[in-house]
User: What shape does this take?
Amino acid sequence: MLLRHTPAAPAVDREALTINPAKTCQPIGAMYAALGVHNCMPHSHGSQGCCSYHRSMLTRHYKEPVMAATSCFTEGASVFGGQANLLEALGNIFTIYAPDVVAVHTTCLSETIGDDLKQMTAKAIESGKVPPGKTVLLANTPSYVGSHVTGFSTMVKGMVDGLAASAAPHKLDVINIIPGYVEPSDMEEIKRLASALGVRTIVFPDTSGVLNGPMTGKFRMYPAGGVTVEQLRAAGDSRATLALGPMASSAAAKALDIKCHVPCEILELPIGLSATDKFIDALRRVAGVSVPESINRERGQLLDVMTDMHQYTAGRKVALAGDPDHLVALVDFLVSMDMQPIHIVSGTPGKKTLERMRPSLDKLGRPVNVKIPGDLYQLHQWIKQEAVDLIIGGTHCKYFARDEDTPLLRFGFPILDRVGHQYFPSVGYKGGLRLLEKILDLLMDRQDRDAPEEKFELVM
Amino acid sequence: MQEGAINDLLEDRRGQVLETSADAAPEAMRCGTRSAAGSVSQRACVFCGSRVVLYPIADALHLVHGPAGCAAYTWDIRGALSSGPALHRHSFTTDLRETDVIYGGAAKLEKALRELIAAHGPKAAFVYSTCIVGLIGDDVDAVCRRVEADCGIPVIPVDSEGFKGTKKDGYKAACAAIARIIGTTPEAPRSVAGINILGEFNLAGEAWMIREAYARMGVPVVATLTGDARVDTIRRAHTARFNVVQCSGSMLGLASLLEAKYGQPYRRVSYFGLEDMAQALYDVADLFAGEDPDMPARAAALVAGEMARVLPLLAPFRKDLEGARAAIYVGGAFKAHSLIKALRHLGMRTVVVGSQTGSPEDYERLQQLCDPGTIILDDSNPVELSRFVLEKKADLLIGGVKERPIAYKLGLAFCDHNHERKIPLAGFEGMVNFAREVHGSVTSPVWKWSARRRA
Assistant: This one.
């Protein structure tokens, strides 16, 4: 399909142009983060289209209703500033939709005309548009900076800036966990693991119960899940913060350290055996607890399958597209199973991403193609130059997975054509086991499909 | 406005919600207004309107000049099929960064255009302006003129800055872009005894079915705008004798422009539902009756044959669906008219109907079409929609991507009649598909487990 429009070579460096982006823009990440706050209405301060696109994209990814309001910019607002729109919007939202929190993020439009969110919100409070006891969170997320990941990070930091406070005389026996840009199922799994260790936590944001809710026969503007305003306030009294995924979570963790003196530890996302070990170990250490047998057992099961099946993963070449935090953890996991991630792109700019992958990639002892920021067109060209056994990335990879007849493991954002990511985690030992099962299914189904009659095996 | 169901609406929303009654004359709907700031509207922007209209042109380059998001969100989401090239399914963007916003993005745009045209040899290029381009003041027109002069293909700026109006303004900008291509061959206007189909986007291959029906009547289709379109056929669109216009919102403007410029008369048609499909064939036959007196008879024979084939296929679906209630929330109101009639064929009554961008005439016609007690909505939101479908005890919601999960959460059957439909719903065969899809969802056993249904 795209094959005939994608030449194998030469893969020239394009400077002015992105073809088939491996990212999207900041505001949608901010909207996703805001959905992880209980009774919160995300608000897009920009044109109506932005909000509509983000809601549609998140709806396609989660197959859940996604609520968000918009400032409905017109030509007038783009000339005279969006203050009137934001004031009217806040008034309307609190009156009609009655949230506890409105989480406002900007767009390229409102940023470029120089709208000052802080000043406007102060004005809104002054003029009575924000009822007493209600909160407005803020995030500056121009679309021409970073990507959906940095937008997420900025809104999570906005939660700290807007709400966290140190009220208690001493730090409490609670650990904050900032789970990173992961699925609701992952946030749920992180809470389960912490609770298995007997650690009291505040997890923010927390989209579990919001974007993977049950079918109840009712439409709820604000589903049951999400971190509450009280929890976000109390985060300033916690003993420590674990930030998972440096790009998505460290800004908020550091802000909380500065604002409320909650020390933080920044870890890679707990995807795969060794990254989960580090997470569990950090949790054990900061909370002063011991790891229960049930968790050791989960770890042993993941390791069991890794060893049982290692001849099927050995030497398999993989192409990856995704977000920096995801890629770093996935690459480490793949290399730990003797797999070879040889083509890697992320649309999200950032010099540190490659450095973070370097220790894993160096173990391969062969050259690896990495482009950050890069796009899916580039990835496709590399695959044409050196074929792979597996592609890992979002749904948009399906075009060239089909063209190159290569199995695709859907991972990251967006996934527009499958379900499961909302409900089954990729983090933790259980999540690692699920990922490994999927990888093995794809590789072994392919082996079965392609094996000549005389080599077709019953037992594998 | 009647008291009762709708009297506790938000003040701002009064006038955009009506309930039909048996004895009253149609009321005027307040519509075409901008959404209130702070609303959870289902509407989109100018860019979205332009993008959906032009995107099916498969051998053109579609370059989104702006940050990557605008390109990412509109990347091949519409399912407009192509029988040949698939360049339109790539996502090209200048991916503007902060430095471009400060120093301007025109140079980057020009470089990108030249690279892409050299690499892919498209037959034309469309350059979509996004919000940010309108603010930083890139001279997109000048860039396009330069590249066009050097590369020898039409390079057309589309004025689609998101904030400059509604989705409808995006349709207008797209039509203006198409109009620049039409008539760029030496052939004389109206020299071909055929038609153009405007506002048909070949979702799930619908344009192919419609073209086949016209072919059986003996009417060639010169250009379909823009389903499975090629730049060269669009160039020749002025040679068609007549235009037929579906999806009035998007292309009525282009039809009047072509009438004024080339003397091509047009008819509004709809291809959804049996009556409207039949009427769309009869109308075209009438247009040609002067030069081909047998054509109306051929059209009638075609319709009779199709009706005889299709009606028995619908009967078993109707048996199960008789008395079920439907709610409709779509982009343009014209489509809702056809849906109401199509649902009647299945024994279903429409109890709620709304659109994002209907006109006063559309809403007046809706009121005439609907039974008393039907709720009619303009620019609605999820809270309102979910409330009215429950109050009116709808069994089915017909809508688009953002409405689907709301329906499912409520335990309602759903039919996608928007960009994401996967099977053709147009024409006679489409009516059978529509009936099968509605029937499949309404009668699915999954709903009986829902709390609402069991209560």
